[in-house]
Design a protein that fits this description.
By secondary structure, the chain is α/β, with parallel strands linked by helices. It has helices at residues 2-32, 148-159, 226-230, 249-256, 275-293, 308-319, 356-361, 363-369, 374-378, 400-409, 428-441, and strands at residues 39-45, 51-52, 57-66, 69-70, 74-82, 88-95, 99-105, 110-120, 123-133, 167-170, 179-187, 194-202, 208-213, 234-238, 296-306, 325-329, 386-389, 414-416.
């Protein structure tokens, strides 16, 4: 009798713990699924593809909704005009019937942008729309230095005098039955300057295509691309700051807010001292590592990344003909000098709205920027390399003006897939298309 009572107690305890676990999981799931706002500011153009010809007039419908239902008598502020140089600004406009119609046009190729801020119950809500005007005719402003190609060829040659001296550490907690995962490192452009990354290799013996993943701006750890590796692809995801990529997040936060704060400005008045010199060369050395220390098949090799990683994708493809396909997504650091002509410029917007007297002091920075401009690397891409470009028309970090200008300058085979309503983020469909395109170009059936 006592034994039965004890067993029943144990079973009840197990059930209670199970129920508690399910409740906690349910709470965590609810927290993880918080997404978006009930209140939305919508700015919708009258062309479904958000595209117009120069000289046409675009009409934008502005509305504020709650649960997709119009709100009336809402106050809004708006700015409209050429991207980053909006010349129409209004405040305190009341949407009496819930909507407002605006018109805009461009006299030359580019983007006309409308930004709206609505005030509801003491809170601000934002919306925007960037309409393209003859985007296929947008051309970059940056000039390629005469010695651009030679400069980088020599830099790569000099970097290769330094042996890779690779390290490799298995991460058993990240491995799967199909993929082995390692933290690796190798020397970069000189002794003891290292690049760290996460290498994922299919378990099954054989030769495989490879994918280099390059990072967006910031300082962070990396998990590695285990999923793509499970599709029979070697993947190497690298960091750019010469530190391990498997530490606690707080370490990266402290570094980013300390020694590496605004690192994109470091050495930007000298092409040899630029922070990005070792970063770009690190991408090339990463391919050296793939070639020498992984079971790469020696044929298909891709490079991809978003934002800063989009720039690095262009730089790597432009400088290294082992790359057969590349996929820059909302690529930053393109057409830095556009703002010198009053045109939207790429992140980090080095010369945006600077006065003439300041620009005179920035002459060496302007010249250096040309050696680290995604447009000039894109000019080196060949007919043997396929590209896939994607970005949003609402992006206020990487202007679509620069994204189209970069795409237009490429002479090799290329595809473009804008997701107009995105800002500086991805839509799920965009992510899925990107993955599918890469697998196709890497020769993987999916």
């Amino acid at each position: 009798m006592q034994q039965n009572t004890t067993n029943r107690f144990k079973n009840m305890k197990k059930v209670s713990l199970l129920l508690l676990g399910l409740v906690l999981c349910g709470l965590l799931s609810v927290q993880a699924q918080i997404r978006g706002n009930s209140i939305e500011v919508k700015v919708v153009p009258d062309h479904q593809d958000w595209r117009y010809e120069v000289g046409e007039t675009a009409t934008f419908k502005i509305s504020v909704t709650k649960s997709n239902t119009l709100l009336y008598n809402i106050k809004v502020d708006y700015a409209a005009g050429p991207e980053m140089y909006q010349d129409v600004k209004k405040q305190g406009v009341v949407l009496k019937d819930g909507t407002l119609m605006l018109k805009g046009k461009m006299t030359k190729p580019g983007f006309y942008r409308v930004d709206v801020t609505a005030y509801v119950d003491g809170k601000e809500y934002k919306g925007a729309c960037g309409a393209a005007f003859s985007p296929e005719k947008i051309q970059p402003t940056t000039v390629m230095p005469q010695d651009f190609k030679e400069y980088w060829q020599k830099a790569i040659e000099q970097a290769r005098y330094t042996d890779l001296m690779p390290t490799k550490r298995l991460l058993p907690e990240r491995c799967t039955k199909d993929v082995n995962v390692y933290e690796v490192s190798f020397q970069n452009m000189q002794w003891n300057w290292r690049t760290y990354g996460i290498l994922c290799v299919p378990v099954k013996p054989g030769k495989y295509p490879a994918l280099l993943r390059v990072p967006g701006a910031g300082v962070r750890p990396y998990a590695g691309d285990v999923w793509t590796a499970s599709q029979s692809v070697i993947t190497l995801e690298i960091g750019i700051h010469g530190i391990s990529v498997t530490m606690d997040q707080k370490v990266y936060d402290d570094v980013f807010n300390g020694a590496l704060m605004n690192y994109w400005n470091f050495g930007n008045d000298n092409r040899d001292n630029s922070y990005y010199k070792r970063v770009v060369l690190g991408c090339i050395r990463a391919i050296d590592y793939i070639e020498q220390y992984t079971p790469w098949n020696g044929k298909e090799l891709g490079v991809t990344g978003s934002s800063q990683g989009g720039f690095l994708s262009l730089a790597t493809a432009g400088l290294d003909k082992r790359v057969t396909c590349y996929a820059p997504v909302h690529a930053a650091m393109c057409d830095h000098t556009a703002s010198l002509k009053g045109i939207a410029c790429g992140w980090p917007h080095y010369f945006y709205k600077m006065k003439d007297e300041t620009l005179k002091m920035k002459k060496t920075v302007i010249e250096t920027s040309r050696y680290y401009d995604g447009v000039n690397f894109a000019r080196l891409i060949t007919d043997q390399q396929k590209g896939w470009f994607s970005f949003g028309y609402n992006d206020d970090v990487v202007p679509p003006t620069t994204a189209w200008a970069t795409y237009n300058i490429v002479t090799g085979p290329k595809e473009i897939s804008p997701y107009q309503a995105t800002w500086h983020f991805w839509f799920q469909e965009q992510w899925d298309e990107w993955e599918s395109w890469l697998l196709k170009e890497l020769g993987v059936k999916h």
